[in-house]
Amino acid sequence: MKVxxxxxxxxxxxxxxGKRIAEKNPGTAFIDGDWCMDIHPFVGNRExxxxxxxxxxxxxxxxxxxxxCKMVVLVWLMDDREVFQSIVDGLTALKAEVKSITLICDKxxxxxxxxxxxxxxxxTDKWLEVSxxxxxxxxxxxxxxxxxxxxxxxxxxMIMGE
Length: 162
Prior knowledge:
Order of helices and strands: EHEHEHEHHEH
Strand content: 15-25%
Radius of gyration: 15 Å
Number of strands: 5
Helix content: 40-55%
Structural class: alpha/beta
Largest sheet: 5 strands, parallel
Number of domains: 1
Number of helices: 6
Distance between the termini: 19 Å
CATH superfamily: P-loop containing nucleotide triphosphate hydrolases
């Protein structure tokens, strides 16, 4: 089974792109990593990230057993190399074919997207500063797509190699 990992800062378009890929490809499971550590109030520490990794890998393992599922798209902000590597190592153990992509955009594009997103509870000034501060980290990763001037459709097609 092929698993696409879409990583990047908050607000860059991971979720909308991942959902578009799933919509265009029948038999695709969509996993938002945030669902796998949805504790209220939010706690993002080593323990909860490890739990989320375990939950993600468990879900993908179950999708592999389902004859209806042909592919998985995982979107999650992984700004910790250890967390990212744990996902990749777990997928390797599951014998999944992994394609990892990091989405980025410049500061102005991120701010514009952030201000236009009225549906996400995380779109606060505090989290915007966190996201902006993470841009250099994500830009340093390999297999990066700059989404700044691209439509969701274009980004999805680039990820799928179309």
